[in-house]
Automatic annotation (TrEMBL):
Protein name as it appears in the record: Olfactory receptor
Membership in a protein family: Belongs to the G-protein coupled receptor 1 family.
Entry's Gene Ontology molecular function annotations: G protein-coupled receptor activity; olfactory receptor activity
Membrane spanning residue stretches: 25-51, 63-86, 98-120, 140-158, 200-226, 238-261, 273-292
Stored PROSITE patterns: G_PROTEIN_RECEP_F1_1, G_PROTEIN_RECEP_F1_2
Claim: Cell membrane is one of the keywords in the record: yes
PANTHER family: OLFACTORY RECEPTOR (PTHR26453)
Protein location: Cell membrane
Keyword Transmembrane: yes
Membrane topology: Multi-pass membrane protein
Keyword tags: Cell membrane, G-protein coupled receptor, Membrane, Olfaction, Receptor, Sensory transduction, Transducer, Transmembrane, Transmembrane helix
Length: 310
């Protein structure tokens, strides 16, 4: 037993895409470009929504949370990935690996819940527009945001505690570019079925409940929009929801395909490509989707830029 425990403290080797060295270097340029855009775009969204008093609304409060979350999410993964590719050393310490998959799992879980909270915000805005300010007051917004963050870290704590007790028996090559829970579980030399069953239940809760909330919210919104007599009213309602819905589809589509498919169908190369989408591409697309489709954000950005130029 002591030998197993000692082997668990060795460094891990992140294989990544090292079987394709030329493609890996091109990928690193692609990733660094997307990471730069993620930092710039999300920082711009946060700054603009703080500086422009007209954006001090619940919708933009949650959008600031989402932007900050995306910055943290990509920063948890991308710098380590680029260092491994450019230095040629693919190692990550045991503690570093635990921290990475725990934090990444927490931030991904927070985004699941936060997107559901944003759907509820859009539901209230469309269904009860006259009572929106009264219902979505500052205290309830802070409570909903805190619930998102606490539930995400609780989910990470539960799943990480199930993974960390599994003996690795000297296997330390991770066929991935990041420390990821599903990959760590596959390194264990004991029967992982009990742990995986518990983790699946936790994943279903953190994914299924927000999905049900989102679907219910948008079903009610769709029913309300269809009954609207004003074409302008329908267009405005659709405009307030379209950006959020695009972000939901991009994030949830890849997450659910990765974590809820049968174990026998899981392909490691497929898993790495999907991970690139939800850890690197999605956080870059979020500010683009919200800024390009949102007149208020574009107007606020022009106002801030013009002030700086003057």
């Amino acid at each position: 037993i002591m030998e197993i425990n000692d082997s668990s403290w060795e460094d891990f080797i992140l294989v990544g895409f090292s079987e394709y060295p030329k493609a890996e270097f091109i990928l690193s340029l692609f990733v660094s470009g997307f990471y730069t855009m993620t930092l710039a775009g999300n920082t711009a969204i946060i700054s603009v929504s703080i500086l422009d008093c007209r954006l001090h609304t619940p919708m933009y409060f949650f959008l600031r949370n989402l932007s900050f979350l995306d910055i943290c999410f990509t920063t948890c993964i991308v710098p380590q990935m680029l260092v491994n590719i450019w230095s040629g050393h693919k190692t990550i310490s045991y503690v570093g690996c635990i921290v990475q998959y725990s934090v990444a799992l927490a931030l991904g879980s927070i985004e699941c819940v936060l997107l559901a909270v944003m759907a509820v915000d859009r539901f209230v805005a469309v269904i009860w527009p006259l009572r929106y300010a009264k219902i979505m007051h500052q205290r309830i917004c802070h409570l909903l945001a805190a619930t998102s963050w606490l539930s995400g870290f609780a989910n990470s704590l539960l799943q990480s505690s199930l993974v960390i007790i599994l003996p690795l028996c000297g296997h330390h090559h991770l066929d991935h570019f990041l420390c990821e829970v599903l990959v760590i579980v596959k390194l264990s030399c004991v029967d992982t079925s009990p742990a995986e069953s518990k983790m699946l239940i936790v994943r279903l809760i953190i994914l299924a409940i927000p999905v049900c909330i989102i679907l219910t919210s948008y079903a009610c919104i769709a029913g309300t929009v269809v009954r609207m007599h004003s074409a302008e009213g329908r267009q405005k309602a659709f405009g307030t929801c379209a950006s959020h819905l695009m972000v939901v589809l991009l994030f949830y589509g890849t997450i659910m395909f990765t974590y809820l498919q049968p174990k026998n169908n899981y392909s490691q190369n497929q898993g790495k490509i999907l991970a690139l989408v939800y850890t690197i591409v999605a956080p870059t697309m979020n500010p683009l989707i919200y800024s390009l489709r949102n007149k208020d954000v574009k107007r606020a950005m022009r106002k801030v830029i013009w002030k700086d130029l003057v």
